[in-house]
Amino acid sequence: MMIDEVRTMPAAGQPQLMRWSVVLPGLAALALALVLPQFANAYVTEVATTALLYVVLCLGLNIVVGYAGLLDLGYAAFFAVGAYTSGILTAEFGFNFWLTIPVAMAAACVAGIIIGAPTLRLRSDYLAIVTLGFGEIVRIIARNLDITGGASGLIGIERPEIFGFRLMQVQHFYYAFLVLALLTAFVCLSVERSRMGRAWFYVRYDEDAAAGIGINRVTAKLQAYMMGAVIASVAGCLYAAKMTAISPESFTFNQSLLILLGVVLGGMGRIPGVVLGAILVALLPEVLRGAGTYRPLVTAVALLAIMLFRPNGLWPDKRV
Amino acid sequence: MALLEVRDLRLSFGGLKVLHDISFSVEKGAINSLIGPNGAGKTSLFNCLTGFYKPKGGSISLSGRPITGLPPHRITALGLARTFQNIRLFKEMSVLENAMSGQHCRSRHGIVSAILHLPAQRREEEAIRAIGMRWLGFVGIEQHAHRRAGGLSYGDQRRLELARALASAPELILLDEPAAGLNEREKLDLIHLIRRIRDETGVTVLLIEHDMGLVMQVSEKIVVFDYGQKIADGAPEAVRADPRVIEAYLGTED
After folding, report:
1. Range of A91's domain?
2. Which contiguous run of DSSP H or E holds residue B172?
3. What transmembrane ranges does the database entry give (chain A) (predicted)?
4. What is the bridge-based pairing of β-strands B204-208 and B172-176?
């Protein structure tokens, strides 16, 4: 069935009619997220922290895949760039954690330009192959350099301190990731409703028409790609600080696929859907722990069922 | 100086010559047409003018500025907008968002000011919406602003493509078969609309059209193509009487 009414995205900052169907569950979810560590045990808080990490990563990849329509199969590479940049700077050079974030963002930008500038001129399929290769290259480089600690990785990454308070326990990192997730959602929402956000949708729906109407498609795609990269790198910094040890095995192709899965599962292009997909990706392996060795099978069947019955994701974009 | 000046334009795909040394010009404030049998090279010429094809030789200038070989988005920014033969709307987006797309090259604010919600960025966004609405009003579909573009009737989709192109504030607008698929009533509305574009906004119009009735009614000058060559160029009456044009359209007696 075709949906004939679509919402025009309200301009950023413009007063809009609240849609209670989204706002109320959103507020409830936020309230739950705020109090969760107060009554949950360490295991649940740990899983919830992982879920928040995936929320950030999926929101970042959603800019690339959901907004601009670019298939990126190596997104974990930017997550690795952030984690290693922050890890090396704090562990080897004694940098303050907070100062490593802008450095990591800059490093992700540079990596994004190196990969994006030549390939974004091509059609999306080529980008998928190149990003797939890029993801593996970054992981293999990390495995073979001395400064990245080789296959065993980096250890002894310092815990960040804020106003004299050191983030140590899992609850602390839970709240840090919650702040990062909310910040990322705010950023995505602001950009989605702006001139550049619309340009990404124009390019995604019809590249030639977008060029004909005055949009530089290469610049638009590159900006989406770089913005996704920057978000992953910030998530990487915080991830390194939480783990205090990182190894190349945290940034495999599998990781890229999981993030992509979260975006597609929830519903590309729309923030609530992507958040839901990210949480599912993090929770599914835990919920299915009881299935023992059948876990991969049950997971696969669950995913197939979702894609069969909700081909546009669990909470799809009305536009699609 | 003419608004659009095309000199010795050549285009070929591999060994196939599509355009042979085409020269013509369009004066500012005119309504001109390009006609010719199917496959004569009209749309290829449009694609050269708008940067989608790179010509093999020759030059194109708009208001005296050379635009030959520039990418499409630069050419649009310099004041040349187009519509497509087979309507190319952003079908899944709203009608208003389609119209707003034209303003992209006339606005500045990027990602950072959107994140910071700078007052200047918000003002710009409001201006973009207002301009989008204004052009929807101009073509008469503002009541559909929040509908899905792909859900509009065929005639309204054509109007929306016009509104989107006009929203880029062009000096010259190229219309590729705007009357294709329209009924008689809609064609009359289109003739009226094309005249209003020129008369009310001062935008120069160049159109490709097969509907001779429409072409003869709206054009002040007609350029006729056949097999990638210009065979005639002049006022409608003169072109209609030109034996080469009659030959191209009707063939000759052996």
Report:
1. 40-252
2. strand B172-176
3. 52-81, 93-117, 173-191, 224-245, 257-284, 296-315
4. parallel
The phi and psi torsions of A16 (rounded to 5 degrees) equal -135, 160
Please give the angle made by the CA atoms of A171, A177 and A178, to the nearest 5 degrees.
Answer: 85
Together in a domain, B254 and B174 = yes
Residues A197-220: pLDDT tens digits?
999 999 999 999 999 999 999 999
Closest CA–CA distance from residue B146 to any residue of chain A (Å): 6
Q: Which residues of chain A have pLDDT under 70?
A: 1-19, 317-320
| B139-152: pLDDT as tens digits | 999 999 999 999 99
A8–chain B Cβ distance below 8 A for any pair: yes
Q: Which of B72, B105, B125 sits opposite A12 (nearest CB)?
A: B125
CA distance B106 to B169: 8
- A7–B contact, CB cutoff 8 A: yes
pTM score = 0.91
**Residue A12 contacts B, CB cutoff 8 Å:** yes
Asked if A195's CB is within 8 angstroms of B147's CB, the reply is: no
- Contact of A223 with chain B, judged by CB distance below 8 Å, is answered with yes
Which domain does B99 fall in, by range? 94-169
Rounded to the nearest angstrom, the minimum Cα separation between B7 and chain A is 22
Strands B4-13 and B16-26: antiparallel
**Quick one: DSSP state of residue B233?**
E
Domain end point (choices B120, B152, B169): B169
Q: Could you tell me which residues are beta bridge partners of residue A5? A: B147
B5 and B128, same domain (yes or no): no
